[in-house]
Amino acid sequence: MEKWVKVENPDQLSEFSLRTANDRPFRRDDFMGHWSIVVLGYTSCPDVCPFVLGNLRAISREWLAQGKPLSRFPLQIIFVAVDPGRDTKRLSDYVQHFGDNVVGVTGDIVQLQRFANATGGAFELGKANTHGDYSVKHSAFSTVISPDAKVIAQLNPPLPVTETIQFFRTLIASTTP
């Protein structure tokens, strides 16, 4: 599997309505003017989510550490919590562990599915057992959204920092609005 896959003929992200960890509306316009990396996950994920977010934190730090900014647009990481029943209350604390530019969002299942579909991702909440526990399955890749809110690439972990920054340099040069 390739680490970085550029989307040919990218589409504008469709409308959706989610909420941030601070209970503010989060919509398509919140992608405008930023390079965004979207991660679907859940706050009680034992391995994939913290690994991917930690990897993206390292990439974000390198993005900022470059002598010359990679883009006139800042980078934001959007963590979309797909288990609103368990995630909503702890989302704010969870995303703080991964950097100041990480925005935690969630919403109702219908809006989360709409958003996941628009970004090429998927998730599924399992059936609850007698103790009320259930599993959550989700895409492991991240989606790159351009500053004009187009889905333009997928990133497949693990992401080597230096090579991922080079991928972004190429991507930015070919797509900046």
Automatic annotation (TrEMBL):
It comes from the Bacteria. SUPFAM superfamilies: Thioredoxin-like. CDD domains: SCO. Cu cation binds at residues 45, 49, 138. Disulfide bonds join 45-49. InterPro entries: SCO1/SenC (IPR003782), Thioredoxin-like_sf (IPR036249). It holds the Pfam family SCO1-SenC. The keyword Metal-binding applies. Keywords: Copper, Disulfide bond, Metal-binding. The keyword Disulfide bond applies. GO terms for molecular function: metal ion binding. Signal peptide: none annotated. Belongs to the SCO1/2 family. This is Sco1/SenC family protein. It comes from Oleiphilus messinensis.
